[in-house]
From TrEMBL:
<dbReference type="InterPro" id="IPR013325">
    <property type="entry name" value="RNA_pol_sigma_r2"/>
</dbReference>
<protein>
    <submittedName>
        <fullName>RNA polymerase sigma factor</fullName>
    </submittedName>
</protein>
<dbReference type="GO" id="GO:0003677">
    <property type="term" value="F:DNA binding"/>
</dbReference>
<dbReference type="GO" id="GO:0016987">
    <property type="term" value="F:sigma factor activity"/>
</dbReference>
<dbReference type="InterPro" id="IPR007627">
    <property type="entry name" value="RNA_pol_sigma70_r2"/>
</dbReference>
<dbReference type="Pfam" id="PF04542">
    <property type="entry name" value="Sigma70_r2"/>
</dbReference>
<comment type="similarity">
    <text>Belongs to the sigma-70 factor family. ECF subfamily.</text>
</comment>
<feature type="domain" description="RNA polymerase sigma factor 70 region 4 type 2">
    <location>
        <begin position="121"/>
        <end position="173"/>
    </location>
</feature>
<dbReference type="InterPro" id="IPR013249">
    <property type="entry name" value="RNA_pol_sigma70_r4_t2"/>
</dbReference>
<keyword id="KW-0805">Transcription regulation</keyword>
<dbReference type="InterPro" id="IPR036388">
    <property type="entry name" value="WH-like_DNA-bd_sf"/>
</dbReference>
<dbReference type="Pfam" id="PF08281">
    <property type="entry name" value="Sigma70_r4_2"/>
</dbReference>
<keyword id="KW-0804">Transcription</keyword>
<keyword id="KW-0731">Sigma factor</keyword>
<dbReference type="InterPro" id="IPR013324">
    <property type="entry name" value="RNA_pol_sigma_r3/r4-like"/>
</dbReference>
<feature type="domain" description="RNA polymerase sigma-70 region 2">
    <location>
        <begin position="26"/>
        <end position="91"/>
    </location>
</feature>
<dbReference type="InterPro" id="IPR014284">
    <property type="entry name" value="RNA_pol_sigma-70_dom"/>
</dbReference>
């Protein structure tokens, strides 16, 4: 596997960029897809956001300063693109972001790419009741097992705040699952 520093150097090279970008795609496409999918819920929406994310990464790779890990930077872009997508969708449908989430969850059962069962649907409904930040933290920790140190880079928040958010989210989800 190619080292991140070498990949970054190739990505910033005009002659090696396309080849390096294909490598980047193969390394991170699936992980970013699932990160996005956990936020936007539906496969078709996740595909659109993933495409926009990689376009943004390609166009802005020269602006990456190396202050964080490359994948942290890409996750931040994917997170922001997902939130922007949800905000635009809510505006287009003239509903709240919470209603967009509920619509997506209600459509999950008919999404041919959703492999979950009734319990998974109930968990998704519980997650949707959380504030946006707690949703992000819970999804990143629970589904992707991202370390708090990496999450801190991605979300630009202290590890302590992230641990507190996760703990609160888990308690709220537990309460939801118990009462519904």
């Amino acid at each position: 596997m190619i080292e991140e520093a070498d990949l970054l150097q190739q990505l910033k090279s005009k002659t090696q960029r396309d080849k390096a970008f294909k490598e980047l795609l193969s390394l991170y496409k699936e992980r970013l897809y699932w990160h996005i999918r956990n936020i936007v819920k539906l496969h078709a929406d996740a595909d659109d956001v993933l495409q926009n994310t990689f376009i943004k990464i390609y166009k802005n790779i020269d602006n990456f300063k190396g202050d964080s890990k490359l994948y942290s930077w890409m996750y931040r872009i994917a997170t922001n693109e997902s939130i922007t997508f949800l905000n635009k969708k809510a505006k287009r449908l003239q509903v709240s972001n919470e209603e967009v989430q509920n619509l997506a969850i209600n459509n999950l059962a008919s999404d041919v790419y959703f492999e979950g069962d009734a319990i998974q649907l109930k968990l998704q409904k519980a997650i949707a009741t959380l504030p946006e930040k707690q949703q992000l933290v819970f999804n990143m920790k629970y589904f992707q097992d991202i370390k708090y140190s990496d999450m801190s880079e991605i979300l630009k928040t202290s590890e302590g705040a992230l641990k507190a958010s996760y703990h609160l989210a888990a308690k709220k989800i537990e309460a939801y699952l118990t009462n519904n």
